[in-house]
Amino acid sequence: MNNFGFNVNEVIEKNRTTIEDIEHIEEWLTTETLPKLAREQIIAFLISCDNDRKMTKRTIKCNYALKSSSPDLFTNRNIRGTELENILNVIHGCEIPHRLNGYLIGISKLNDTNYRNFNLVAYIKLVTMSLETICFRENVPEGLILILDCKGFSLMHLSHVKINILKWFLQYVQEAIPIKLKSIHVVNSSSAIEVGFNLIKPFIRNETIQNVHFHSLRTMEFFYENHIPKSYLPKDYGGELEAVSYYHEQSLERLNRMHQYFEFEEQQRYKDFNFL
Questions:
Q1: Same domain as 212, residue 185
Q2: Which of 94, 86, 77 is nearest to 250 (CA)?
Q3: Which of 29, 39, 218, 220 shows the smallest number of beta carbons within 10 Å?
Q4: What is the model's pTM?
Q5: Confidence (pLDDT) at 249
Q6: What DSSP letter does each residue of 186-232 carry, written as one string?
């Protein structure tokens, strides 16, 4: 199985990490009730933690603990399945091909604004799959800049939100993903978004809150000048690149190519592992 987009030796040659750090984590894994990770997986965790061994171990433990505690989100990860096919009609997401200072830019937006069609669990499942796909892109990203387009999001969407699932997801994103989340930009913000954000704010760490930025149509020039230039944005947001729908299709192709990886990763996990 090799769906990893980078070569271990090339990453080491570029001084993104060291063979000593990789071997240290490999040896540590043999002493834990954890899956035996491929070197590419270890590299993703190390780079996301700035090669801090202690933090890397903590992140790996948290990652597999949370996966174990929510099996529905991490089994049958097949975008050809009905659940994910449906949410892909509701949500469009993509990765921008150009990196901003080494950071990959990801975008998520509503394609279907009918709240009845929004499935939070399916959406979170899709997001976790997309995050893992990003981790194993060619030339491992320094981290992720996320744009959440909330146009069409209403208070009725909040009626589909389950706090316990959101709490789990926020812990996963903040403590367990093998990629550094540099910043989150909420565009087309509204009063419904303010209500939703206040709902989840108790579960967000202060350092994360400081990296969340809200933008309306009136403040987009500030967004271009201080956060993401137009040359890195789709034309949906006044940028110079192709539309989100174009890059969405490319991202779907990447998720399809990762099908073998998702099967491998599921088999790799110990079924009875639960760190929590």
A1: yes
A2: 94
A3: 218
A4: 0.92
A5: 95
A6: EES--HHHHHHHHHHGGGS-HHHHTTEEEE-GGGHHHHHHHT--GGG
